[in-house]
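lol ok so funny story. i was supposed to be doing the assay writeup but got distracted and ended up predicting the structure for this chain instead. priorities right. anyway since i did it might as well share w the group, maybe its usefull for someone
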Amino acid sequence: MNHDILLNRFPNVNIVKLTGGYTNTTLLLEGTDPQMIAKIYHVENTDARTEISALRLLNHSGVTPRVHDFFEKENCLFVMMDYVPGINAQRLLDQDGRDQGRKIYEQLGIYLARDVHTIKRGDCEAELPVITKSANDVEELEFVPSGIKSMVKEVLDISDHGEQTLIHGDYGPHNVMLSNDSMFILDWEWAGLCIFITLTWQRICQKSS
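and the output, tada:
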């Protein structure tokens, strides 16, 4: 059904299902110019609306795929955006080990600080949820070192007051595509606005070093 809906809008294209860096059903439309993908959700999926809002906010940032259109059909929401060729950063980490990992995480931090966390609530009119902090499950994360847990809990215990900033909600190499010399951040379904306490986090990290 999804193929038929897309072919009615984009005749003479070849449709290929994508994996690796994309959630939900994601179809590549070979033959469009520029080459696009269709990301497909159920029409009542509120996370889809969040992703659309975040991507439109970042549409000219160069760190996310550009959104060209979105439409509803047969209880599905279709989001049409640029296709980003490349390799999923997590897959590259799994293949190339620690040295490559350091470079990737350094670049991930730069993108996050420069292009995401610099966007404040007052700078945008996007309809994004407000996300509050919670420390309920930190102790249950057995794979996290105890020192890191202590730093996280100190941050989470700070009261929510101050300026809200854009956050991704599920940021990491699994949601990043590497393409030539660029990185593209994917899957913004859990994005939102949150109190971001940069100076406090820096102070805690310096204290632990």
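Residues 2-82 form a domain with the Phosphorylase Kinase; domain 1 fold (CATH 3.30.200.20). The helical segments are 2-9, 46-57, 89-116, 146-156, 198-208.
back to the writeup now i swear
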